[in-house]
Amino acid sequence: xxxxxGFALWFTGMSGAGKTTVARLVERELRDRGLKVEVLDGDxxxxxxSKGLGFSKEDRxxxxxxxxxxxxxxxxxxxxxxxxxISPYQSIRDEIRAKMDNFVEVYCxxxxxxxxxxxxxxxxxxxxxxxxxxxxxxSDPYEAPPDPEVTIYSDRETAETSAARVxxxxxxxxxxxxxxxxxxxxxEEKEMVEDRLRALGYM
Amino acid sequence: MRIFGKRxxxxxxxxxxxxxxxxxxxxxxxxxxxxxxxxxxxxxLSEGTYAPMFSVYPTVSSVAWSCMMTGVNPAxxxxxxxxxxKPGSYKLYIPTSRHxxxxxxxxxxxxxxxRVIVMNVPVTYPPREVNGxxxxxxxxxxxxxxxxxxxxxxxxxxxGYRIDTDPWxxxxxKDDFLVDFRETLAARGRTLLGFMDGEPxxxxxxxxxxxxxxxxxxxxxxxxxxPVYEPAFYDCYHQIDDLLGEVRRRLDDDTTLVLMSDHxxxxxxQEVYINNWLRDAGYLSFRSDEPKSVADLDPSSxxxxxxxxxxxxxxxxxxxxxCVSPGEEYEKLRDELAAGLLELRDxxxxxxxxxxxxxxxxxxxxxxxxxxxxxIAVPFRGFDLKGAVNRPTLTFKGNELVGMHTYDDAMLxxxxxxxKRDGFSVVDVMPTILDIMELATPPDLDGVSVV
Lengths: 203, 451
What we know:
The complex is a heterodimer of chains A (203) and B (451). With 203 residues, chain A is α/β, with parallel strands linked by helices. In chain A, 44% of the residues lie in helices and 13% in strands. Chain B folds into two domains: 15-268 and 403-436, Alkaline Phosphatase, subunit A (3-Layer(aba) Sandwich), CATH 3.40.720.10; 270-396, Gyrase A, domain 2. In chain B, 56% of the residues are buried. The A-B interface holds A 151-153, 156-158, 160-161, 164-169, 183-186, 189-190, 192-197, 199-203 and B 60, 81-83, 86-89, 93-94, 96-98, 125-126, 138-139, 141, 164, 166-168, 170-171, 213, 216, 271, 307, 317-318, 320, 326, 367, 370, 384, 386-387, 401.
């Protein structure tokens, strides 16, 4: 696909809220449609690009700025850059959005008590016991985005549904071509089939 | 359970011929046999077991045949109607074989090394690969694209194959429809017998869609003993009976004949537009005075409906502009909608029109569950629940579509076998066929063999 539109798709939300899971599903769907995609996952970035950074506000901001910088480079070159990091502070997310032409924010909403109960990585237990300091949602704030393009709810919908809603929004915003092109019917055939269903009283 | 004939010894066979007669009620066949209209069918029924069967909710052919061909419920095969809403959107799409998430009977048989020939089953377009031939069903655009492998199309054309009767012709003239019926069924029959004689096969499946059309357009005059259309209706069954006679004549000892219909039929008393009730009761509003589909709903709407009787809550987090919170508010709304719909009365007779409301978790389970409607309204006989958004009145009775589906009174016939139980449904057909062919059943089907 030669005329792919580059953009950043930014997943924000607390640890365990489904950022990586949904980001990976969206990545797969985009790749299936022949689009170029890179995922910058917070957990992975911290082992290379941001190695050595800690979890103070300053270090967190640096980490997010670095991810934002790479997303900007990629998207300017026609690649879809998916960022999946807690990115808890509103000011830094705003800063990244302001620097970029195409920025789509996905807020992974999930109630804290559900996250604590779920605790897939065992981090909440450690944070609650004080073993981990500056843990978002427990000992460090999470500032929910006031106006994200999409909000997904991992405690109320499947990851597939969340991914489908993200894709629908990207289609609506014109960042990715409509999947209708890959449907079973051409426009003309679709009209014919719908006409038949109308005649039979099914539409 | 109605069983014709004497006790049968279990017939072993490697091969099955399956004829689907869309929407032909068990009770109608029983009467046609008793009145001597269908001598071949009478003889066939005496050679096996024949029983009423339940369909599926919602009771439309696309869903029922998807259950038949996969042996699983809609939350696993993913087909809930002739139209559905795209996930994360209010836009509608037409589910096709590409949306079916389960393996079909013929794909499973293909993997077992069996050769299959399948013709005209709903929701098989675009044709998926099989070991043999698949001619897709009535929502195929044309004969050139209808078949796997594509070179079969040339042979279909040589038989004058037709995909379906034309429902617009039927709306305009019952007489023209009857001509269309005869010609389409004749071409279907030529094709079936052509495949039966000229191809190797282990499983041969022919779907007769024409009966569903006959019932939609002529059921009421048949039931009211119309002097012209009652005999014409039976003539259509005479033609089907002749074809079944030809099929039976070709069967050898190694082949079992199976007949099935996917739902019953009754006279349509009223079309009922659920979206009109939702609008009048304050649950639904549209952005436009002339909405074209539910995609035009106003974001403040709390519920909307798709054909037939599928009611969706405008749920936050699922619908793009959902306004009903999951949990308590959602449950309260479902209760309220159910109570309101049960009170819905036929404006002409004052009778209740809706028998019961099913919550989706009562009937569906599987990975495609999220796609299901939140409530499924089940009407009393004669009240056809529609999803139209632009009708001026709650109900309407026209003289074109005069028959409608019923959940009960579908039927299954198996030659040379007895049924172990009654009260089964369309999902039980696939494992039954595998049992007849003495093949192992995939481990996770919802259905269970009845033989």
